[in-house]
Amino acid sequence: MANNGIRNIFFFHYYIPLEFIFISWLYAEGMTGFIPKKWYYYMAGIFTAYSIINSLFIQPIPMFNSYAQTVESVWVMAYTLAYFYKLMSQLKVEKLERDPFFLISISLLLFCRKPICLLA
Fold it and tell me: Could you read off the pLDDT of 21-56 as tens digits, one per residue?
């Protein structure tokens, strides 16, 4: 696309809400018994609506949607911190380095801090 002079920045307007929906689903399944699943699904719906409003009125399709990415990063960091709170309060995992959800949460926490520092 870049060779033809077509900017591909519009993909982020689709990618960021889909990414947040997937991460919300992942945490809804992984945090059973701690935070109700419907809370994660509500957050995914609210964020998707916010992304659509942002793409239509605030940051149109030809622009990079930095506001949506920043909001997504804040919520994903909140998800990871809630998981860490659950992990520390229940103390069920003996070896953290072997818990895949812990590794995913650490990765997401490190990955989502970058947009906040750069875009906020």
Answer: 999 999 999 888 888 999 999 999 999 999 999 999
Q: How far apart are the first and last CA of the chain?
A: 29
Q: Which tokens is 118 given? A: 């750069």
Q: With contact defined as beta carbons under 8 Å apart, do 109 and 77 qualify?
A: yes
What pTM does this model have? 0.88
Residue 32 DSSP code: T
Cβ-based burial of 118 (10 A; exposed 0-12, middle 13-18, buried ≥19): exposed
What six digits make up the tokens of 91?
């103390």
The CA distances from residue 5 to 1, 8, 9, 59, 64, in Å, are: 7, 9, 12, 21, 17
